[in-house]
Amino acid sequence: MRVVVLTGAGISAESGVPTFRDADGLWEGHRVEDVATPEAYAAQPAVVHRFYDARRAALAGVEPNPAHRALARLEEHLGDDLLVVTQNIDDLHERAGSTRVLHMHGELLSALCRACEGRVRWAGDLGDFPDCPSCGVSALRPDVVWFGEIPYQMDRIQEALERADLFVSIGTSGAVYPAAGFVQYASGHGVRTLELNLQPSEVSRLFHEARQGLAGELVPVWVE
Ligand code: BJW
Question: Is ipTM > 0.90 here?
Fold first, then answer.
């Protein structure tokens, strides 16, 4: 049985990582659509760095929750037949033990050099505009995918969706494409689809089945 799992901010909410579009989703009064764009970065790089530096620092104080751990257990059973595609830039899937994880919107613990296009593991602040360790130019940006940029590994994701038997979406609002379109893409290839989310998402009606509740409760029940 080949399974593709898509995760969003809701799976990390019970770990204490704020979601984007729930009540506590604003950052210093900004909507994510106002800070997560190349235009915002060009206009106010220090503000955007502060947003990501704060979230990177907060990672140290959070732990994976039962939903992340259940997906890691599922990988022990399914091996290469499970692929977790996450929109999250935290590392909670990896810390729970998952190894087959694609970060389609990038990773907090990586920086991308706009000068040499190299990537570097980055645990500190970018707010002080450090030099790239490879080329020496001060051009490091968060290695994340902003609105208008192309999400990472789309070819691999599409291929996995085409070959899957089951697609499961966990903790995502269905407000952001292309991830919100995966359910239609999977269904179009004859794949069964299941949504696990706190409330109906914007695309719930497109799933064969949708269950509502906390990811920390629904995911372990689904996995066992
Ligand atoms: C719980 C829970 C609990 C809470 N248990 N559940 C019109 C139509 C189609 C597309 C577009 C369009 N207009 C513009 C576009 C394109 C645009 C887009 O989608 N815009 C929308 C606003 C409409 N998309 C893009 O620009 C993307 N690029 C693109 O399309 O390129 C073209 C292309 C694609 C493919 C191939 C070739 C070309 C890029 C999108 C980049 C998004 N980036 C961000 C920031 C990343 C870095 C960062 O983290 O800062 O990604 S924005 C933000 O939203 C972040 C998230 O990953 C993403 C999704 O959010 P998510 O995870 O769904 O979180 P929430 O908060 O929205 O929802 C949480 C859910 O959990 C809620 O439903 C809760 O109920 C639930 N929940 N607690 C279970 N305990």
Answer: yes
